[in-house]
Amino acid sequence: MAMVQDIVIRPIITEKSMAGNQMKKYTFEVKKDATKIDVKRAVEELFGVEVSKVHTMHVRGHLRRQGRTQGYTRSWKKAIVTLTDGSKSIEFFDSMV
User: Could you give the number of structural domains in the chain?
Assistant: First the structure.
């Protein structure tokens, strides 16, 4: 089993993902083969919060061109984590707003 630091790779900081912070929804890039249960355990252990739901999705690589050459960006997995009502918020995201 992978360590929790290996499962959650980085937070996703965009306008759309930051709008969900008020509803206790946080977005992360996670390991491609991580399950919803793995993501839930990792977020609970890393940030000391209670997770109620986890939504995961695969993000396909986009076609990019540079002159005559073209290729695809890497594909990755995104997880949207919803916290319980009684849980505290994640402090890292509080400093972003």
Answer: 1
